[in-house]
Amino acid sequence: MFYTVDEIATMLQVSKSKAYKIVASLNKELKKMGYITIAGRVPKKYFQEKFYA
């Protein structure tokens, strides 16, 4: 249901620090759309739409 920072760092082959920035950015977009977000996690469907569409 959610990807964690560690999973995103592994998939994108980036540092954990960069993965946190990506997650924060995606969660900021979700908040603007009215969704409740969880720090350090991003919904799998939303992540896949943004990175693998």
TrEMBL record:
Q: Name the chain's protein.
A: Transcriptional regulator
Q: Which organism is it from?
A: Clostridium tepidum
